[in-house]
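As a warm-up, study this chain.
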Amino acid sequence: MKLNVYNTLSRKKEVFEPLHAPNVGLYVCGPTVYGDGHLGHARPAITFDILFRYLTHLGYKVRYVRNITDVGHLEHDADDGEDKIAKKARLDQLEPMEVVQHYLLRYHKAMEKLNVLPPSIEPHASGHIIEQIEFVKKILEAGYAYESEGSVYFDVEKYNKDYNYGKLSGRNIDELLETTRELDGQSEKRRSADFALWKKAAPEHIMHWPSPWSEGFPGWHLECSAMGTKYLGDTFDIHGGGMDLMFPHHEAEIAQSCAALGHESVKYWMHNNMITINGQKMGKSLGNFITLDQFFEGNHPLLTQPFAPMTIRFFILQAHYRSTVDFSSEALVASEKGLARLMEAYERLQKLQASAETTVEVAGLRERCEEAMCDDLNTPIVISHLFEASKAINTVADGKGTISEADLAELKEVFKLFIEDILGLQTESGSGSNEAYKKAIDLLLEMRLEAKRNKDWATSDKIRNELTALGFNIKDTKDGFEWSL
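Now compare it with the structure written out below.
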């Protein structure tokens, strides 16, 4: 089977064919580290973690670059305003890189909890100022930018005559240029559609560097063009990010690369859709912002309880990455229950005993899951196949069916491959305290079994009833017992 991915640029699914197989270059727009990560930040991280994992599973050697925006990101993503990192540093009387480090550590901890694999390279915008300056020089030399009062702007109208500015997002740039042609004379830019490649720093601006044009800082869009081509070459395979970055950020990236290099850098553009609350995009400006830590701790008015990181991951994977996901606490509760059922079946699978023959249906599971993943990473279909296979597991575990040694080995291998290695789901029992907790419940239930063997029904019933009242499901089996919370 061949992997098909939806290329935003062509607006259709295409067979993935690497430029330099088995090597694959993957660049993903990472976080802008000026605030606490929220559920909307988790979705691209998990989406492209799945892509990274699956490409690796297919045998490719993936260089995964995920950038960190720590400078040049102005208020409202505009060409005017205050750098958000610098603003936070000024208000809290900190060094800007203290602010970056604080939020970056929190982001990494959240990603670790969500079992998002680290990228191959995680370059910072502030560490690549020289490369960004060189990129601006190339664009100026090609004639697609102009200097104005110490700043440098990209000339969208001139570029659009030779290329197609708007091809990724489908914007009608000719119409935009026509309506924004005349400015009031107070702007440094020739047209409002033009965007900054380099900004001259105001006296109060904290972070700035020397350049041929002024003491200043790079525009936001520039960092990805410079760092993507530095680490992956002038042409590379996949560029990913959230759909909200399609315009103007990724559109500007295409223009910058074409202007500087004479050709596009990216073969496949992939975008995940948004997470919404009541149909609105989650974000600080709309007041519907819930941080990942708030999800994990349950301390937000919209949350009815805390939610474990794996519940968040499962919630995101239950929808296709290109579809909108509308958040509600009820939806997360449903995901929590669904994940518990799947992981309980996975745990029961490890305890199954093989028989001489198979009476349950398990054939073709691997192929069906692979087919779904090759169809543009269709994780909800993979999950549905795993749930279907869980019925067979439960049938055998309940003594109502049998499974051969070969089928049992295949089932264990496929479940591990897709649940752990590709979907990245894991049990929440990683800490010593959780292991001790499980062993304590097992000990209580062993005591109950001993009481039953001794016909001490009062003790047996007391243990079962009190555990049930605490929310435990107890199931007696021919080999002893099973429990879940």
